[in-house]
Amino acid sequence: MIDGRALHFVFKVADRTLTAKFYREILGMKVLRHEEFSEGCEAACNGPYANRWSKTMIGYGPEDTHFVVELTYNYGITYYEQGNDFLGLTIQSSESLKRAAAANWPVKEHNGLKYVEAPGGYKFYIIDKPQPVDKDPVVKVALASSNLAKSIAYWNGLLSLKIFEKTDKSVLLGFSENQAKLELVDIGGPVNRAKAYGRIAFSCPYDQQPLIDKKIQEANGKILTPLISLDTPGKATVRVIILADPDDHEICFVDDESFRQLSQVDPNSDADLDKFIKSDKSRA
């Protein structure tokens, strides 16, 4: 068994200004930390780009207790083609719907569910109930599956996420009841990740990472980046392993001990993000 903790989902963003406005002013999230990097990530955290990039963690509370969003911005990249891989992130927050209406941000509906779209077309489904204060408002992330049985064998069988709900066309998985869940939905055809593809991240104890590595190798699964240490200037070094599921959804497992140090809320991050947005000449 893996003692996993759901951490965040990574989005590539092309318009940092409008994106920051959406998460802050529509969803009501807070910037938790902001980091700038002079060259591409060794674990392809920013995608297949060797350029300067930034990472902004944003959410409803500290990363120790909340599932958050990682906004990856590659300087000079102005567009990412969307695929059909990311289906939506669900949050409980009637307040977000009120803020969207007040700001004239379109609120749409799909199968009776209200949603708002982040810049780039990423869907955020909103449960129209007051935002909880005693738990994380983020409920689940939904990703596409081309073969639900294969997906379940991988996520439940290999990675040991528990099954919380299951239908013919979808499964809800997670490491524990009190964490954000992963929903996999059978779309009845191939999954196209295009250029905007993201990555879901979990943590686990340092000594369990080699066990994951061993399990995936024995199952002939994909390891995109073998165990590697990643540095963040002025912050903790973490060890990660990057996997891909049967539909090539990227999965990061980072060691929990170091990540808890790295992910401390930085009180200067909000101002730092604004400063780097203002000084960004790559979109000129």
Automatic annotation (TrEMBL):
It holds the Pfam family GLOD4_C. InterPro entries: GLOD4 (IPR043193), GLOD4_C (IPR043194), GLOD4_dom (IPR059155), Glyas_Bleomycin-R_OHBP_Dase (IPR029068), VOC_core (IPR037523). Residues 5-129, 137-256 form the VOC domain. CDD domains: GLOD4_C, GLOD4_N. It comes from the Eukaryota. The keyword Repeat applies. Keywords: Repeat. Belongs to the glyoxalase I family. PANTHER family: GLYOXALASE DOMAIN-CONTAINING PROTEIN 4. This is VOC domain-containing protein. It comes from Euphydryas editha (Edith's checkerspot).
